[in-house]
Structure to design on (498 residues):
C-alpha cells in the first residue's frame, strides 16, 4: 500500500491533506463505543456561531419525538444481574459486548456515549450493589492512568506514580511503580519522606550511608524489601535482568519528581564551592552531566557485591538497622482461602512506621471484613481481580473494583473486605502507617461479644452465632462461582468452597 502510493506519486498529496475528521464509528476498537448522539460534522460549513433566532421562545420548535429512544433493545444481561440488588453479586461484564447499568429492578440501559472498557473493569461502579449508599471519596487509582516518566538514554526505564493529585483522600501514602533496564540506575538521591519498597521483578544492588557514616550495600531480588529513612542518601542499580519495583512513601503529597538528585546538587552550586568542598581543581567538574539523570543506563555492576563495599571507620550499618529485608525467603502463613505474610517493625526494626501484609486470596475467597485501628491503608494489587466495599460511618459505603496495577486506599477505621472476583489468585499489599500490623476482625468481634447482645441487635440465627470463630482467620473461603447464589439465594452458595 505504502509502496504503491509512492510509485503513483500520491504520497505528498496524502501527507498534505488535513487529518480526516474521526467519527464515532471509526473510534471503535475491541471496546467499541456507540453511535454518536449528535451527528458529527465532516465538511466545512458556514460560520462558527448560529443566529440569535435560535434562542428559546423565538426559535422554531425542535422535534421532541420520533428520535431514537434511549432504551437499548435486545441487550443481554450477565449472570446475577437480575438478582436482588442487595445480594450485590459480582457482575462479570466481560461476558457481554455492551454491559448495561441494571441491577435487579433498578437502573436503565445506557445508550452512550461511553467506552465499554471502563465499565467492564468497574462493574460495581456502573451497576452498584443496592447496599452502596451515600458519598464515599474515590478510593481506587489504576496506575495505567498515570503519566509515565521515561528515563534518559536508550530504554533506560520509567516511573509512574500516584499521590494526592490522583487520589485526594490518600494523604498518608504515595506510590511509585518504577522499572530500570539491566544495569540502569535510579540516580544517587535522597528525599523528604520515608521510602518502603518491594521488588516486583528482577534484582537490584542498593548502596547507602547513614548520618553516622555507617555504610550499607546489598543485593535483593523479587519479593524482597528495602526501607530508606527520609534524608538517607542512596543509589539503586538494576542487576543483569533489570528490575521493576514499587516504592511507597509515607506522605500522600510526595512526588517522585521532587527528590534531591546528586546531579542537580552539583549543577546548582558554584563550581568554586564544589572545588573547595571536594578539595579538587575546578577542572574536575568539566564533565558533570548537563542535566539531571534520574533514570539512566550504567555499566554492569561486578557480580560479587563485596567488590563494591566501601567502609569507613564507623564500619557497616548494624544488622538491627539494616535497610533491607529478604522477604521473599519468609514462608507465608497459610489458611483456608489463601495465605498472608506480615512485615513490620517486629522483624524489620528500622521501618518503624510501615506495617505491611502481602495477602494471597484464592478464587471465590476473600480477605475478611475488618478495619484498622488508627492508620489509613494503602493497597497495591499485584495480580488478579478483586472488589472492595468501604463502609464509612455513619451510613456511606461504596464498592470499587481492582485489577493488577491498581492502587486502593481506605481511611482509618473504615470497614472493608477484599473479595476475589476472578479465576486466578488475587495478590495484594496492605500497607499501614504503624509499628505493628493490626486489625479488628468483624467475625471475631461478634464471636467474643455476649451472644445475647449480638442476637438482640442483629437477630442472627443460633447456628450462625455458634459457628463464629473466636480466632482471627484473615481470610474466608467461598464459592468460585460468584453468581451461584442467584439461583439459590437461601443456599450456601456464597461460602461453599465449590
Ligand atoms: C566475594 O568477594 C569476597 C571478598 O573478596 C570473597 O571473600 C567472597 O568469597 C566472594 N564471594 C563469591 C561468591 O565469590
Ligand atoms: C563490607 O566490609 C565490612 C568491613 O570489612 C564487612 O564487615 C562487611 O561484611 C562487608 N560487606 C559485604 C557485603 O561484603
Ligand atoms: C455459575 O452458576 C450459575 C448458576 O448456577 C451458572 O448459570 C453459571 O454457568 C455458573 N458459572 C460457571 C462459570 O460455572
Amino acid at each position: 500500500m505504502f509502496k504503491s502510493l509512492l510509485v503513483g506519486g500520491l504520497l505528498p498529496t496524502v501527507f498534505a491533506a488535513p487529518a480526516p475528521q474521526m467519527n464515532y464509528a471509526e473510534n471503535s476498537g475491541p471496546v467499541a463505543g456507540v453511535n454518536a448522539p449528535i451527528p458529527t460534522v465532516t465538511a466545512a460549513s458556514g460560520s462558527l456561531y448560529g443566529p440569535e433566532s435560535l434562542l428559546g421562545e423565538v426559535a422554531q420548535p425542535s422535534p421532541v419525538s420520533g428520535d431514537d429512544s434511549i432504551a437499548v433493545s435486545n441487550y443481554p444481561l450477565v449472570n446475577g444481574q437480575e438478582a436482588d440488588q442487595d445480594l450485590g453479586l459480582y457482575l462479570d461484564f466481560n461476558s457481554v459486548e455492551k454491559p448495561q447499568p441494571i441491577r435487579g429492578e433498578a437502573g436503565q440501559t445506557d445508550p452512550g456515549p461511553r467506552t465499554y472498557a471502563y465499565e467492564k473493569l468497574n462493574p460495581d461502579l456502573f451497576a452498584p450493589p443496592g447496599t452502596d449508599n451515600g458519598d464515599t471519596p474515590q478510593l481506587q487509582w489504576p496506575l495505567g492512568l498515570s503519566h509515565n516518566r521515561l528515563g534518559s538514554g536508550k530504554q533506560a526505564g520509567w516511573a509512574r506514580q500516584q499521590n494526592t493529585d490522583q487520589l485526594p483522600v490518600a494523604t498518608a501514602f504515595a506510590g511509585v511503580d518504577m522499572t530500570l533496564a539491566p544495569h540502569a540506575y535510579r540516580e544517587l538521591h535522597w528525599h523528604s519522606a520515608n521510602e518502603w519498597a518491594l521488588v516486583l521483578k528482577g534484582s537490584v544492588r542498593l548502596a547507602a550511608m547513614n548520618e553516622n557514616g555507617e555504610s550499607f550495600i546489598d543485593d535483593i531480588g523479587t519479593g524482597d524489601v528495602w526501607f530508606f529513612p527520609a534524608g538517607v542518601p542512596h543509589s539503586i542499580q538494576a542487576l543483569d535482568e533489570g528490575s521493576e519495583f514499587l516504592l511507597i512513601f509515607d506522605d500522600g503529597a510526595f512526588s517522585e519528581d521532587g527528590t534531591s538528585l546528586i546531579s542537580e546538587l552539583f549543577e546548582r552550586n558554584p563550581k568554586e564551592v564544589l572545588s573547595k568542598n571536594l578539595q579538587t581543581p575546578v577542572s574536575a567538574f568539566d564533565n558533570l552531566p548537563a542535566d539531571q539523570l534520574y533514570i539512566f543506563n550504567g555499566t554492569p555492576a561486578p557480580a560479587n557485591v563485596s567488590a563494591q563495599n566501601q567502609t569507613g571507620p564507623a564500619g557497616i550499618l548494624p544488622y538491627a538497622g539494616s535497610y533491607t529485608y529478604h522477604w521473599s525467603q519468609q514462608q507465608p502463613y497459610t489458611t483456608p482461602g489463601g495465605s498472608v505474610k506480615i512485615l513490620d517493625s517486629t522483624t524489620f526494626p528500622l521501618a518503624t512506621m510501615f506495617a505491611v501484609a502481602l495477602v494471597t486470596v484464592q478464587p471465590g475467597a476473600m480477605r475478611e471484613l475488618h478495619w484498622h485501628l488508627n492508620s489509613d491503608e494503602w493497597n497495591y494489587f499485584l495480580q488478579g481481580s478483586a472488589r472492595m466495599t468501604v463502609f464509612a460511618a455513619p451510613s456511606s459505603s461504596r464498592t470499587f473494583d481492582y485489577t493488577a496495577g491498581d492502587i486502593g486506599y481506605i481511611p482509618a477505621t473504615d470497614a472493608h473486605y477484599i473479595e476475589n472476583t476472578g479465576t486466578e489468585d488475587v495478590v495484594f499489599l496492605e500497607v499501614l502507617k504503624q509499628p505493628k500490623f493490626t486489625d479488628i476482625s468483624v467475625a471475631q468481634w461478634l464471636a467474643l461479644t455476649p451472644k445475647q447482645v449480638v442476637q438482640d441487635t442483629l437477630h442472627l440465627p443460633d447456628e450462625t452465632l455458634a459457628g463464629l470463630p473466636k480466632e482471627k482467620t484473615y481470610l474466608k473461603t467461598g464459592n468460585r462461582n460468584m453468581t451461584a447464589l442467584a439461583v439459590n439465594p437461601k443456599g450456601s452458595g456464597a461460602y461453599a468452597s465449590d
